[in-house]
Design goal:
Layout lengths: L5 H31 L6 H23 L4 H6 L4 H16 L2 E3 L2 E3 L1 H18 L3 H15 L1 H9 L2 E9 L4 H14 L3 E10 L4 E10 L3 H11 L4 E8 L2
Antiparallel strand pairs: 1-2, 3-5, 3-6, 4-5
Length: 236
């Protein structure tokens, strides 16, 4: 793939253009999906990652095929540069992973960046069917399985309540009734009482299928007169 001469040169150049165009399309598909989700790595990032993988593979194979010396070709490994690129892309993926409010975000985007590099390597190697199949099958967890995940995944919060009474039974009865009404599950609890101030402090680790029950729960608990303070925070 070194010098473009005659028909062979045009064919090689056309193949390069085809590979780079396909890399833009594949990277663009995943980039649009990330843009719609409001993620940091969008269209340009994913396209550049996929293009990089394609160019790395073109460079590896081109460097190998342009060497006419048989002894040198035996020593060369066309996959060495590609292996280095796969290792290096991990640093870019790590850059989009964030931990905020006790939750880790960006794992899917990081995995998608790594996937784009692999698909780019497939395109650069001329494995078009593998690249297209990988793209189609990769869209399944990003679309169909995403909806399933939202139904399965449950949200967890920490509910902290300060009550102007040390009557545990009365407080527990009212709290249990409200929690059951909003379909909120208590995973663990911690109760302490300050007898001097006649104040009961309750900390609950609660779980629900979405954030809506937490919002409704907060509104209902706020209306109870004996509750002095109330907070719902993310689980650390």
């Amino acid at each position: 793939m070194g010098k473009f001469k005659g028909v062979t040169g045009c064919k090689v150049f056309s193949e390069i253009i085809l590979k780079l165009t396909l890399a833009i399309l594949v990277g663009g598909i995943f980039g649009i999906e990330r843009e719609l989700r409001g993620r940091s790595a969008g269209i340009r990032t994913n396209i550049l990652v996929c293009l990089s993988g394609t160019l790395v593979m073109l460079l590896s194979s081109g460097y190998f095929t342009n060497t006419s010396d048989l002894a040198v070709r035996i020593q060369l490994d066309p996959g060495r540069i590609a292996a280095g690129a796969v290792t290096g892309i991990g640093f870019l993926g790590a850059g989009v992973i964030l931990k905020t409010k006790g939750e880790v975000q960006g794992l899917t985007t990081a995995a998608l960046i790594f996937l784009n590099m692999i698909l780019g390597l497939c395109i650069g190697s001329g494995l078009y069917l593998l690249a297209i199949s990988g793209t189609v099958f990769s869209l399944i967890p990003l679309t169909i399985l995403r909806r399933l995940s939202s139904l399965i995944k449950k949200e967890m919060r920490i509910l902290n309540i300060s009550i102007k009474s040390c009557d545990k039974e009365e407080a527990q009865t009212k709290l249990s009734r409200i929690l059951a009404k909003n379909k909120v599950v208590v995973l663990s609890h911690d109760i302490s009482c300050n007898f001097e101030k006649e104040e009961l402090k309750v900390s609950l680790l609660i779980e629900a299928v979405s954030e809506k029950p937490f919002l409704k729960l907060f509104e209902e608990l706020r209306e109870i007169k004996f509750i002095k303070s109330l907070s719902i925070s993310a689980k650390e």
